Amino acid sequence: MEDTKTLHIAMFPWLAMGHLIPFFRLSELLAQKGHRISFISTPRNISCLPKIRSNLSTLINLVSLPLPSRPDLPSDAESTMDVNNLQQQPLKHAFDQLRPALVDFLESSTPDWIIYDYASHWLPQLAGELGISRAYFSLFTAACLAFIGPRSDLAKDERSTPEDFTVAPKWVPFESNIYYRLHETTKFIERIDEDKSGPSDLVRFAISVEQSDIVMIRSCEEFEQDWFDLLRKLLEKPVIPVGFLPPVTESDVGEDDSNWVGIKQWLDKQRSNSVVYVAFGTEPVLSRDELTELALGLEKSELPFFWVLRNSPRSTQSTLEELPNGFTERVKGRGLVYNGWAPQVKVLSHDSVGGFLTHCGWNSVVEGLSFGRVLVLFPVTNDQGPNARLLEGKKLGVEIRRNERDGSFRSEWVAESLRLAMVDDPDKLLNRKTKEMMRCIQDKDRNEGYLGRLARYLEVERRQVG
Ligand code: UDP
Q1: By CB distance 3.0 to 4.6 Å, which of 169, 371, 388, 396 could disulfide with 377?
Q2: What domain of life is recorded for the organism (predicted)?
């Protein structure tokens, strides 16, 4: 065993807010342990990060690498939020083109570890050649990673049809409710087929996992013990939970932020625990039909709501125009539709919010549960379907019913789920389970334990260079 020492850790997240935020949060926590962090991203993404707290400013170095421009990308696009569906793959290609600049940085600054994300499949090999230890930081749950499976050579994966993904894979030895619904997996497979100009997300992901020295997961053993055990067997390498990394309200926006002041005034007028916060993260784009049914469902639920509705990237039309005729007038006073970037953590922390209608992005799930908000699950893409199954299985949310084949749904089903979560839960089971989970996520000793074990592991197991 080597002596422990202060480490230099490079962090390299994928270009998406849902990845930059937890990578940044982990950076802060590792810096609090005295380690030096180089947080590497592109200029605009770096400018969107929360302010570094003054006691950590000498330990966290923000490294800005300009994103190479490409004719198939808008000139100001630097994250998934800035591009439409067809531009997602070009954004990945631009990200891949950061490789030479990243190599220069790694060669000159020789970090002990690099903590990286699923998209940079080319990174672990080159980091290995430079003698840098490699940690893949998964923002997917252990259940989701185990569902995807162990092999980098996905050609060997016998699953090829959408139906194959609607059941548990054969390497799961216990009863499992982690699977995709048919409509979710059809969309997923269509996307892979659509653009073959580069490696698919699954290939990027599998190589990133396989060539890592360790896998770190934003979850905890108590939450998904079976899946952690299985994943260790499948991957045959250390799989380290880092805890849930609960959000801190101060890093969202200041109390005097003008957007927050307006939102807070509205929330202050509502009854405690009465409001449903509705938001679908930074990436999902909903169809007009989906928006209509959701809107009518919110209306029929008769519950107060605060709905964050972002415009589609690059669209010249406001999403508000796609809402059903007369909707905003009919719900006036009871429901507010907010068009833009919302201070989500601050909203969720407000006492009048009781429930969260979410797309089940893992950040949103952790944020909602960490304030004890009952979840209404409306998964759209990526890992969100399996996340919804995992949560519903643990009675940590109620999933809105959808047609299995085409994903269509009716406003009545939305209203039903909302009322079940907020008022009609007969034995308050959802509420009790949610509050238990809130305590688990907020448990300071447990979080400190996970982080301490991670930091010790990184200190002791770093590669010895030279
Ligand atoms: N977010 C926010 N305001 C918004 C939209 C998103 O603060 O208007 C934050 C949200 O709090 C979360 C992240 O962006 O931390 C979105 O991550 P998530 O995993 O929930 O969804 P994704 O966008 O990755 O699908």
Answers
A1: 388
A2: Eukaryota
d(CA 435, CA 417): 19
Q: What is the pLDDT of residues 290-307, one digit of tens each?
A: 999 999 999 999 999 999
253 lines ligand 1 (CB under 6 A): no
By alpha-carbon position, which residue is closest to atom 11 of ligand 1?
344
Domain of 214 in residue numbering reads as 8-247+443-465
Same-domain status, 437 and 447: no
375 lines ligand 1 (CB under 6 A): no
Query: Is the CB of 282 within 6 Å of ligand 1?
Result: yes
Is there a domain that residue 1 lies in?
no
pLDDT of residue 313: 77
Based on the fold, state whether residues 207 and 260 are members of the same structural domain.
Answer: no
3 belongs to a structural domain: no
Q: Which of ligand 1's atoms lies nearest the C-alpha of 21?
A: 15
User: What atom of ligand 1 comes closest to residue 16's alpha carbon?
Assistant: 24
Ligand 1 contacts CB of residue 249 (under 6 A):
no
Sheet holding 113-116, edge to edge: 60-64, 36-41, 8-12, 113-116, 133-138, 214-217, 239-241
Are residues 391 and 316 part of one domain?
yes
